[in-house]
Amino acid sequence: MFDRLEIKVVPPGPRFDAQVRFWVNGEDMVEEAVGVGGRGPYAVDVLPVGRPSPLRATGEARRLTLGEPECTGGCCGFLTVVVQRLGEIVQWSDWEAPWEANTLPPDSPLELHFEASQYDAEVARAEAVRWWPAHP
Length: 136
Description:
Number of strands: 7
Radius of gyration: 14 Å
Number of helices: 4
Helix content: 10-25%
Largest sheet: 4 strands, antiparallel
Shape: globular
Order of helices and strands: EEEHHEHEEEH
Distance between the termini: 39 Å
Strand content: 25-35%
């Protein structure tokens, strides 16, 4: 069985611009790994105008930042994962969590596997929805 990705853009608030949250199998990955005060990457960085999103999976493995704690990633570290396309599967693996989180939640999988067509469709859907300002 494949994991299921949903990408949500959180409206800007008094402290942060619009940010992206990653829901996998109905769970907010940022909140699960970083805590309630954590935030995802800015929408303008992850869903840029005029160029492909870094969320797009290719055959070349690359590290993607999914979030950071309330105190910022520069202070305590970032929640990151390696993203890679393996044929008809997109794999998220090699997780790193902020030092304060110490580790990912005990029930978190070491790897997530998405059906490539569902993953690609979700990234394309998120790229097409542009209701937040292009420049903060």
